[in-house]
Amino acid sequence: MALLTGCAVVLGLLAGTLGRGEADAGDAGFVGPSYSGTTAPTGQKPQSKLWFANGRWWGVLWDVVSKDFHVFGYDATANQWYDTGTLVDTRANVAADALYDGTHVYVVSAGSSSTNSAHSPQLRRYHFDTTADAWVADPGFPVTIATGGAEAYVLDEDSTGRLWVTFTQGSKVLLAHSTTSDTAWTPKYELPAAHDAQNVDADDISSVVAFDGDKIGVLWSNQRAGETKMYWAWHLDGTSDQTWSTAVAYDMPEGADDHINLKSLVGDDHGRVYAMVKTSMDHPTDPLINLLVLHGDDSWSTHVFATKSEDLTRGIVLIDLAHRLLYGLASGPCCAGGTVYYKSTSLDAPDFTTSSWVPFIHSAAHPEANNVTSTKQNLTAASGLMALAGDDQTRTYLYNLVPPDVIGPDTTPPETVIESGPDPVTTETSATFGIGANEPSTFSCQLDASTAVPCDSPYSVTGVGVGDHVMRVTAVDTAGNADPTPAESHWTVQSVDTTVLASDFSSLAGWEVFVGGGGTATIESDAVSSGNPGLRLTSTTADGATASVRTTLSEPLASMRLDVSSRVVLARSSQEISLLKLYDASGARLLSLTRTGAGALYVRDRTTASAQVAGPALGAVARIALVVTVRDGADSWRLEVDGVPVASSDAADLGSLAVSRIRLGDDSLRREVDQRFDDLVVRR
User: In the prediction, which pLDDT does 128 show?
Assistant: First the structure.
């Protein structure tokens, strides 16, 4: 408590003990812009309206001139919020949630009516333009990511870059997530949870948080009679949408209410997820707001933040890693508000009972400060602590900032993580690594004993020799702290010949031929490259016309690489053609590579087609490779053209069987096509 008590003196805040909603005399914090024309723009409870980036605070605020929501910036010198003019939402009464991932700012905003399509959630993405010194909207947005409004749409991003939202509609906890890009989303679906997430009270809400470096978690309330608990479900990144583990986070009579605010840590022994939640208890000594902490053994501990007699509401939690402190903020009296108070406690051993309430935001001229909001990010010495509230009586923003010099210098190094890398044993002489950290950082990468070089995610190395190798990655945070224990990835490159099938197409021995309606499958000189024989497949638009060849591998392969030289000489602009297909032993298609009429390529697994990428022009020769791994619940594929990866998926649906058969050419009917193949190699 000593740290921010000192801040209270600096900012003229008056410390005192809160009792039954009585606010201390005197103003605390500052008066911000008007928000006349909208209501409660700093709500809802699980959402965050602010983020810290490029050395300053930013937020989603209402502009009274244009009557819509914009990105605002905070000018520390003038101590005021200013409108950047960057549009967020033209709708007046929406609730927004902002996420900064170190590169982009994502904002999801929606109205509250689940039956009104005009209230549906819109997702926008922004990047920072250093020349304009402002956030600029990315093309392709906004995207409507679900149907109908909700009390609160909450957004986070997992380790694969997938965006998730959770919300409640029709007494169900629902999810949606991005797929092949930030603009492509699944339909909304029910959270697959053992604890009846499909039957909650109409007043209940849910929130989502990324944690542990490779998981996404959802916390929700259930206030139905006989339930009144806080529930938790978590999901390993990259696994099936239907694979979730569930638990009870808090189980007490009247233990649930629709107030949830989540934060997370990475690689910390004292807690992975911190949740500020409200109960429905009504005895004066009962806990009204609790801090729930998820520990490494998946157990939850409970720490009372405020009792019923203290009459607070809409609590949020913030993490200060530099000083290993937690800050809890809430407004009182319930439920219109009046003053935003805070307490701080140790991150390692939370105990809010030993400190007094301190007014953080209070204005005699604006007497209903409420709905306090801040950032999803952990606080640093650079950021300080910024919180924003609103007074719905005067339609005015209120805010306060604990300056960086009061928070203190950031001396805590980041935790580096290698999120993905090569298989432990491989014959590949190249490797690609997904790298990250638990806070915004720059990175250096060191292969074996070579000199470390600056790097970003994904980071690739080529020409890796046979033998054992290690990649060491070091994160350096914005305060200059370097991780003293770099993350490491170890793997071995083997030289064993892993060829399962090789064909130079000097003959069709070993291949089944499928032709009809005038289609042909022949071996021709110069089919692909000058001086070499190759496979030529032709088909027309005549009835029954088709041309393809198929072979069965000598052994089923759960992990394989297929390389083949391809040349498409003729293809109608109005038709798509298959270049190759992979099947299991039963003949079920697992994966196909298709060329569009416009010349683009895309890959389709059993259920989903990838985004299209530019393919070789008609007549051009290209070396095409498909790298496929079939693992139940974690299938993946990668498409390369002339040695360059152009598309991939780590969440493919290839079933649980191995690849047994390969087809070249298009087995559809009436496709006018002339395509050629040569030098096919399949390796384990």
Answer: 97
CA distance 127 to 120: 24
Coil/strand/helix, residue 28: strand
Predicted TM-score of the model (pTM): 0.60
User: In terms of Cα–Cα distance, which of 618, 386, 600, 378 is closest to 479?
Assistant: 378
Q: 408: which DSSP letter? A: -
Nearest to 627 by CA among 646, 611, 613: 646
Question: Phi-psi region for residue 298, left (φ > 0), alpha (ψ -120 to 50) or beta?
Answer: left
What's the sign of the alpha-carbon dihedral 45, 49, 53, 56?
A: negative
Distance CA 616, CA 385 (A): 53
Give burial (CB, 10 Å; 0-12/13-18/19+) of 490: exposed
Average model confidence (pLDDT) across the chain: 90
The C-alpha atoms of residue 109 and residue 92 are separated, in whole angstroms, by 11
pLDDT band at 26 (very low <50, low <70, confident <90, very high): low
Q: Reduced to 3 states, what is the DSSP secondary structure of residue 138?
A: coil
Strand partners, 157: 163
Do the Cβ atoms of 14 and 353 come closer than 8 Å? no
**Cα 192 from Cα 18, distance rounded (Å):** 42
- DSSP 8-state secondary structure symbol assigned to residue 54: T
Q: pLDDT tens digit string along 178-195?
A: 999 999 999 999 999 877
Residue 242 exposed, middle or buried by CB count within 10 Å (0-12, 13-18, 19+): exposed
How far apart, in whole angstroms, are the C-alpha atoms of residue 437 and residue 146?
31
User: Vertex 58, ends 57 and 60: CA angle to 5°?
Assistant: 150
What pLDDT digit, counting tens, does each position of 536-563 carry? 999 999 999 999 999 999 999 988 999 9
CA dist., res. 459 & res. 16, Å (int): 53
- Which helix (DSSP H) or strand (DSSP E) does residue 7 occupy? helix 2-11
DSSP state of 362: B
Tens-digit pLDDT profile for residues 560-614: 999 999 999 999 999 999 999 999 999 999 999 999 999 999 999 999 999 999 9
Percent of all residues in the chain with a pLDDT value above 90, rounded to a whole number: 77
Core vs surface per residue 123-161: b (16+ CB within 10 A) or e? bbbbebeeeeebbebeeeebbebbbbbbbbbbbbbbbbe
Residue 90 has φ and ψ, to the nearest 5°, of -85, -10
Residue 154, φ and ψ in degrees, nearest 5: -125, 140
Q: Which residue bears the tokens 């928000």?
A: 35
Q: Is the dihedral of CA 128, 132, 133, 134 positive or negative?
A: negative
Strand partners, 255: none
d(CA 515, CA 537) in angstroms, rounded, equals: 9
Residue 485's CB is within 10 A of a number of other CB atoms, namely 11
Q: Strand 487-493 and strand 425-426: pairing?
A: parallel
